[in-house]
UniProtKB/TrEMBL annotation:
InterPro entries linked: HPr, HPr-like, HPr-like_sf, PTS_HPr_His_P_site
Keyword field: Cytoplasm, Phosphotransferase system
Every HPr domain range: 1-88
Residue spans crossing the bilayer: none
Cytoplasm in keyword set: yes
SUPFAM superfamilies tied to this protein: HPr-like (SSF55594)
Keyword Cytoplasm: yes
CC annotations in GO: cytoplasm
Naturally occurring in which organism (per UniProt): Oerskovia douganii
Domain of life, per lineage: Bacteria
GO biological process terms, semicolon-separated: phosphoenolpyruvate-dependent sugar phosphotransferase system
Name by which UniProt lists this protein: Phosphocarrier protein HPr
CDD domains: PTS-HPr_like
Amino acid sequence: MERTVTVAIAEGLHARPAALFVAEAGKQPVPVTLSKEGAETVDAASILGVMTLGAAAGDQVVLATETDGVEAEAALDALAAFLERETI
């Protein structure tokens, strides 16, 4: 299961927004990965991975999980909503 999202956060996923995103990913009941075109897929709960992805405002990223079901959908919804916010 996956979801494509455009990063709306003005700073992108750098420093504070990345730390908050990773914290949100760590709360999810299923493991989630994050990727963008031209970069390797990273664990959404890894601050180092998310920072090295270098996702900027306006970039499209893909949230994915190998798990199916209600929990997986809720996890992707929560993380997509985080990325779609313009301010944190």
